[in-house]
Known about the structure:
Blueprint: E1 11-16, H1 19-22, H2 31-46, E2 50-55, H3 63-68, H4 73-97, E3 102-106, E4 115-116, H5 119-127, E5 131-135, H6 145-155, E6 160-165, E7 170-171, E8 183-184, E9 186-187, H7 189-195, H8 202-210, E10 215-219, H9 225-230, E11 237-239
Helix pairs in contact: 2-4, 6-8, 7-8
Amino acid sequence: xxxxxxxxxxxxxxxxxxxxxxxxxxxxxxxxxxxxxxxxxxxxxxxxxxxxxxxxxxxxxxxxxxxxxxxxxxxxxxxxxxxxxxxxxxxxxxxxxxxxxxxxxxxxxxxxxxxxxxxxxxxxxxxxxxxxxxxxxxxxxxxxxxxxxxxxxxxxxxxxxxxxxxxxxxxxxxxxxxxxxxxxxxxxxxxxxxxxxxxxxxxxxxxxxxxxxxxxxxxxxxxxxxxxxxxxxxxxxxxx
Length: 240
């Protein structure tokens, strides 16, 4: 297993979209996929990384879609926050089944199932070797789980955000519609904003830019990529 004593990324925040939980399914939670993600997180922790995770909820609920159909936007977003907690509990269970000590924290209080988010407590959990899973986004409507990921990363003094996707990184155009799209190995926060490269939403990218927080965008479907990221191996795209 890799030695992280000289690696650039000791404390990391992994941003998982809700789609990561559905795996090959169209929606819902695919348990083999969640188990694989948990196994990779265990391996990364065994390599010496301190790991926090922010989860999305799009596999269960999409606030934008609900709002487009007439639901009040704030209410739709709060429902989406609850969906992220379902994913957080699923990931927590998968990690615990592998012997990984975890804590789930939520931005909306749900004391029966998770701790409320407290920055110092989250940091202490990381120092004690626990994987900390953040649910319920920022706790505020109109903000995405990507923005929550950047916010939590800054609050816990993470060295990097690892943004898990279904493609190999950031491309200069949509690889789904342009066969000639080129993978960018490095790009600046400002270029992401100016070219609308859709790494994360503009609020998240701006917050990362203002605080010089690097983001690694990588393919979650390639086994071992989480460990490669935390050990500083050059994969995907780095935004800095």
